């Protein structure tokens, strides 16, 4: 789903200026929101020129899509790593839930980057909204597939339940005690697992 394909520097790697712009935008967009941050601030904090920004991104929208692309890649990697160390499909679900809980407990946690972004881009036809939906569809399909392998029938209903538990935990995790939120979330996931067929 990664938007805004990485532009290469003369050495064949990702341009240092592009990486700085995207890193700066990622940090500020996540901490403060997207609409509240203008390109002038990103340019200043990334210590690049306006021309450099527009050489790497067509504008703020492409920068926002690249930010969501980075978030998407990070979450996919987190889920893949969690699944690697697990044995059964049910343990994979537990490991993914544990990784989500670890994120909620992390310093600077401010909710789900995708839920935060879609709140600022409510138009379903907008590319940012579409990027959020694509990420969420991948996560739903991943959890549904794991739950099907763990013996759930219907797995799509269980998958939606886990996604909703995750959404609630991500929203509550920056408002209330993250330890309590995580304990409730993990208990909810165990509840879904306990209702599998057989």
Notable features of this structure?
198 residues, mainly alpha, Tetracycline Repressor, domain 2, 9 helices, 0% strand, disordered N terminus, Homeodomain-like_sf, HTH_TetR, DNA-binding, HTH-type_TetR-like_transc_reg
Based on CA atoms alone, the radius of gyration comes out at 18 Å
CATH secondary-structure class of the domain at 61-194 = Mainly Alpha
CATH domain topology of the domain at 61-194: Tetracycline Repressor, domain 2
**Element-level helix/strand string:** HHHHHHHHH
Q: Give the oligomeric state of the chains in this entry, treating copies of one chain as homo and distinct chains as hetero.
A: single chain
CATH superfamily of the domain at 61-194: Tetracycline Repressor, domain 2
Q: What share of the residues lie within helices? A: over 70%
Strand content is under 5%
pLDDT averaged residue by residue: 91
InterPro entries: Homeodomain-like_sf, HTH-type_TetR-like_transc_reg, HTH_TetR, Tet_transcr_reg_TetR-rel_C_sf
DNA-binding region: 38-57
Protein name: TetR/AcrR family transcriptional regulator
Keywords: DNA-binding
